[in-house]
Amino acid sequence: MTPLMLTMQAFGPFAGTESIDFTALGKSPLFLINGPTGAGKSSILDALCFALYGQTTGNERDPTQMRCDQADAALLTEVSLDFHLRGADYRVRRVPQQERPKARGEGTTTHNAEAQLWRLKAGGEVETCLVARKVNDATAELQTLIGLDANQFRQVMVLPQGKFRELLIADSKEREKIFSQLFQTQIFQRIEEQLRNQANQIERDVKEHRQHISGILAGGELENEAALDQELESLKPQVEDARQQFETAQQQRRKAEIQRDEALALQHQFEARDTLAADKARHLGQHDEIESSKERLAQSAHAQALQAPKSALDQAQQAVTTAQAEQQTAEAALTAQRTNAQQAKQAFETTRQRQSELPALRERHRQLGEFIQKGQQLSELQTHFQTAQAAWQQADSALKRDEAQLDVIRQQGEAIGVKLERLQAELQQLASAPAELNRHNNLLTQRQELDELARQGRELTAQQQQTADALERRKIEAAQADRNATEQEMRWHQGQAALLALTLEQDAPCPVCGSLAHPAPAVNNANVITQAQVEAARSAQDQARHALHVAERHYQQLTQQVSYNTQQVQRLNQQLGEWASQALKALQNTCDELNRQVARQTSVEREVQQQIAARDALRREWGVLDKQLKAQRPAVEKAKEDALRLESQRDQLSQSLPENARDPVAMRQTLTELERQITHIEQDWESAQLALSNSQTQLARAEEQRRGANERIERSEQSLQQARTEWQAALQTSPFSGEAAFQASQLDAAQRQALTHQVEAYQRRLAELEGALQNYQTQLADKTPPDLTALTTLTETAQTAEHTQLEAWRKLDGRLATLHGIRQKLATAHTAQAELEAQYQLWGTLSEVANGRTGHRISLQRFVLGVLLDDVLIQASERLVRMSRGRYQLVRREDPSKGNKASGLELDVADTYTSKNRSVATLSGGESFMAALSLALGLSDVVQAYAGGIQLDTLFIDEGFGSLDQDALDQAIAMLSELQMGGRMIGVISHVSELKEQMPIRIEVRASRHGSSVAVKGA
User: Fold this and answer.
1) Domain harbouring 276, CATH code
2) Whether residues 142 and 58 fall in one domain
3) Rounded distance, CA 98 to CA 110, Å?
4) Where do the Rad50/SbcC-type AAA domain residues begin and end (predicted)?
5) What whole-number distance in Å separates Cα of residue 320 and Cα of residue 329?
6) Given this model, what pLDDT does residue 978 score?
7) 986 touches 29 (CB < 8 A)
8) For residues 317 and 793, what is the distance between their CA atoms, to the nearest angstrom?
């Protein structure tokens, strides 16, 4: 940022309007701001900082305190600054809040603070208004443009009196803010935030994954993974037994289906044989039609042989017809082209005569142009005169209107004040409405939750009763299944004795006791129990026990839910208090009333803001009108003078024009008509030449086309005679009696193909029917039709049994598959959780390192800024070594700060006399100034070298040189001169007389009883 023009009005010690043209100091100047104490040297820097940020350089004086006491009461305090930044010029104007006299009556009124920001053109004219009035908007826009806030600006571009040590002794956190703006290192801060967000997200994912594992177990109605393993072990043998029973039923069903399908196939063979016999009889009925088709195909073959000479004759006739049509077309075209050529020649002669009139028309065109130009000047003078006269009348009317408007504004302001007091009183009454609404909304939510819990409690109680009844039924069924299984097993053993008795023989030993006599063998009966029935009873027993276990677990779950519901109801009753017993509608009505109060509060707040805005608008309008009234009278006089001057110029120009040339509209119409005539003649001349050339070319082309058509007619007639002779000879040698018989016997390709396909299809189908019929008769010679009804019934019975076994197997296998799926999901979830924990080890470590939570607590951005600070310190130390005669160097502190304080950017000074590093705060006043100046100059060098978004091409230094000895002062001046030659503007405020001798370019500030003034010297 480079200042171009600074204008101060009634600001600080400057009672009038003082302007400093920095461009008059030269390119990249090194200049001195001097003057007596209290004259206002520092106020120049205050004005610069106030124009940009609305604050003074030391930030010790409020902007409202910067008005000059010696200034005229009617003169407004304001500061305006033109500056150059990154190839563009800008202008900012600021007015602090101040009291000014009322436009009418006695007393003062408050003029609110305002600010405007414009982008300028190359000549200093306004190009675009960036901020129209708002102070905060202007400050924010300027911070964005410059890249520094007010504090950072004071630390790196302006070293105020008594503040030059701020950047030198700033802590790591403050220096990080400044350097991140200067070097644009926010990307490293975004990396820190991204790593921190990534680590936090992974940590949240780990917690969600643990909840996901619990949800997987809950979805399978499992308490833990041990219960999953236990149920898997018990289910595996049950599934295997059910599968074997299903496979047995499946084999029986397949056997029955095979028998049914074989019988069905035999029945279809009998039906197919009868169908083929009927199809053959119907097919033989097409014999006569097929014979007729064969005869037509033979005649068509004879006609096909004569097709070539017939086609040649037709083509020859068509060629003669085409040639005759082309000859007629060529004759008509030739006649038309002869007519066109004659017309083009006549038009060419007519246009050549008109073309000779062009010189006179062009001379008339030049004279009219001169008259029109003077007429335009006369019209513009008349317009300017009327505008000036209207402005004069309008200004006079506005003066009277504005005076009346001031009275109206005062009345409106009084009315707004009364209404504002009433609204503020009502707003005070409604202040507690939002808190009460929030509390009652929470109560309403809890009351609705209580009603919902009561409804759920009733449902759970009913479900608990139903589950208890079902549990009793399951107990009875399980007991019955146990008794049935025991009874079936006993009966099976009894049946085995009867079967063994059937194997006993007389005089043969018993396989059980070895006796040869068998006095009372076991008697077999019809109800012998098989092993399959015993297994079925055992399976039913297991199913009944499993159903009992499920019912007991369901009853326990409902009991727990009822208990939890009761606890929640008690908790809500305690929280609701008296609202728990009152009707829900009453609580809703209270919430509705509070909603209306909150809405009214919002409405009143909005209305208060509107009234305040209206009051402020009236105050601004009052100020504008007051200013207008003061400026309107000289404006009226000036408008009158402008009107008289323009009237005189108009009369003089009017006398220099002929009477018939004073109407610019008529003259412009005449000029337009004359231009149209000239253009029309030129275009007609070019068109006539082109048309004559084209018509001659087209006539020659038409004659050539007619000759070609005559030759084609002769050739086509000779070909036609030859084709007729060949056709007659071919027809006489054919079996046809004449051309009519030939035409009647012709068939096109589609007809021939259809007839051929019909004959072939008939013969092929007849052969297929006879072969298939013979095959069926051979196969069915020794067979009879089957009994399909009995076989179908047997198959359906087997299918029902298979379906029953399949459902039992599927139920058990489905549960087994569900448990396996849960185990797989758990394995996947554990793997994913391990991966997330591994990721967290990586990203969490990176986040902690990047955000400075380990070791020396240096973040990534602060580490990068530390490297940049090292570059700055190299440049600063070169200058500090020279000014301190080789004693001091600036270094970055390597030891971390104590506690949790951020570190990494602290500064120490290396003292070569003691070979130790110590804090920069231990330097004396003069040493601190040398170190601060060196740091500012080094920072400026490095920022420019890195070519970042911030441009430090200006530096202002307020005092501090008086603390230097002569040698250090000479070194400081030499360094400032070197910096100036690098393209920077350097301004120094000092009382040191040696500086005045070494800096011929100066801004002198002079003080007087009526206020200070400024003057540029030596530029």
Assistant:
1) 1.10.287
2) yes
3) 6
4) 6-245
5) 14
6) 66
7) yes
8) 82
900 pLDDT above the threshold of 70: no
The CATH number of residue 25's host domain is 3.40.50.300
pLDDT tens per residue, range 56-88 = 876 566 777 888 888 888 889 999 999 998 888
Any idea which residue has 């069915």 for tokens? 780
Q: Are residues 18 and 135 in the same domain?
A: yes
Nearest to 157 by CA among 980, 1003, 952: 952
Q: Tens digits of per-residue pLDDT, 812-822? A: 877 778 888 87
Give the tokens for residue 518: 């068998």
Q: What angle do CA 283, 287, 291 make, to 5 degrees?
A: 145
Among the candidates 809, 828, 854, a domain finishes at 854
Query: Tokens standing for 952?
Result: 């430090």
**Do 32 and 132 share a domain, yes or no?**
yes
Least Cα distance to 545 among 491, 468, 465, 485 occurs for 485
Rounded CA-CA distance 541/549 in Å is 12
Query: Is residue 371 scored above 80 in pLDDT?
Result: no
Q: How far is it, in rounded angstroms, from Cα 211 to Cα 73?
A: 75
CA 849 to each of CA 64, 860, 988: distance values in angstroms, whole numbers, following the listed order: 48, 8, 44
Classify strands 985-989 and 30-34 as parallel, antiparallel or unpaired.
parallel
Which tokens sit at 276? 């083929």
Give the three-class secondary structure for 67.
Answer: strand
Please give the Cα distance from 464 to 559 (Å, whole number): 7
Asked if residue 772 is part of any domain, the answer here is no
Residues 205 and 96 both lie in one domain: no
Alpha-carbon span 935 to 924, nearest angstrom: 16
Provide the residue range defining the domain that includes 850: 190-293+787-854
If asked whether residues 237 and 107 sit together in one domain, one would say no
Q: Which two tokens stand for residue 323?
A: 């040639």
Whether residue 127 is predicted with pLDDT greater than 70 in this model: the reply is yes
What phi, psi does 784 have (nearest 5°)? -120, 155
Buried (b) or exposed (e) across 494-527, using 16+ Cβ within 10 A? ebeeeeebeeeeeeeebeeeeeeeeeeeeeeeee
Of 854, 888, 906, the residue at which a domain comes to its end is 854
- Residues 143 and 2 reside in one and the same domain: yes
What does the alpha-carbon distance between residue 992 and residue 34 come to, in Å, rounded to a whole number?
Answer: 9
- Check if the beta carbon of residue 249 is closer than 8 Å to that of residue 798: yes
Q: What's the structural domain count of the chain?
A: 2
Tokens of 723: 């084709």
What crossing angle do the helices spanning 433-501 and 584-655 adopt, rounded to 10°? 130
Over residues 605-640, the pLDDT tens digits come to 888 888 888 877 877 777 777 677 767 767 777 777
Q: Give the H or E element holding residue 113.
A: none
Question: 3-state DSSP call for residue 90?
Answer: strand
